[in-house]
Write a structure and sequence with these properties.
286 residues; alpha+beta; Glycosyltransferase; Maltose phosphorylase, domain 3; four-stranded mixed β-sheet; globular; 6hp_glycosidase-like_sf; Glycoside hydrolase family 65 protein
Length: 286
Amino acid sequence: TSRFYMDYGDFVAGRGFTINGVTGPDEYTALINNNTYTNLMVKDQLEFLVASLTEEISTQFDVTDNEIKQWKQAAKQMYIHRTDSALIGQDDSFLTKGKWPFEATNEAQYPLLLHFHPMKIYQKQVLKQADLILAMVLQSERFTAEEKLVNYDYYEPLTTHDSSLSPATHAIIAAELDRMEQAVSFFYYTARTDLDDYHHNVKDGVHTAAMAGSWLAIVYGFAGLRIKNGNLHFQPKLPKEWTSYQFRITFQGRLIEVTTNLKGTTYRLIHGETISIFSDNNSVQL
């Protein structure tokens, strides 16, 4: 895949490595240039590849020194559409479009794709699901706290959440930003997608990704799980409407139980070797 990206992308003077003619996670924005989510994920892959190469792998796949040099250069010079402020473009052209007329769109006209021609949708600033905000979850360390706040406040109001994949991602970032009322609302939307038939299509099958999203909203959202430098980091928060939550995760051969309640958060090593984790940036030995 790294060879594909090098073939598909281009080094452009004054910009760096660009990837044009793509569609990112958002299905209401298609065939654009330099989708930030896509470019960051490719950057991450190239960096991982270079760091993971061994002589055996290089020999097996005929990797040349020039290829490695180009992979490093592409990762370092990956183009991201930044502005003069903390606002980041979802892609090269998104911020140049007019915004969707939400005030003139009634509830019966959602989801938009069933009531408007795609070319009409593609012309506007409107999202079906998380795109740049998804990048802020999966590539969290590449964004500053200010960038997360500014971009969440900009892109969330433009998102219809017509996709059942969207609320869970927003719940995670909302919790990180201490927007707990929004985070809880997105969580319940995710958890009750099929129970309340929000998309009027349960007759066709259940939304298993949304089911998984409810777990992610708790673990990555309210518990604040992130993996940094190979270590587990938690920043647990308890919604005011709740008295507790509990889950277990497997990490590097260990099974760890996390419980957050009105008294605080406890961590228990169910099985496996001793491990150090971090809770609110404090080291905890299990």
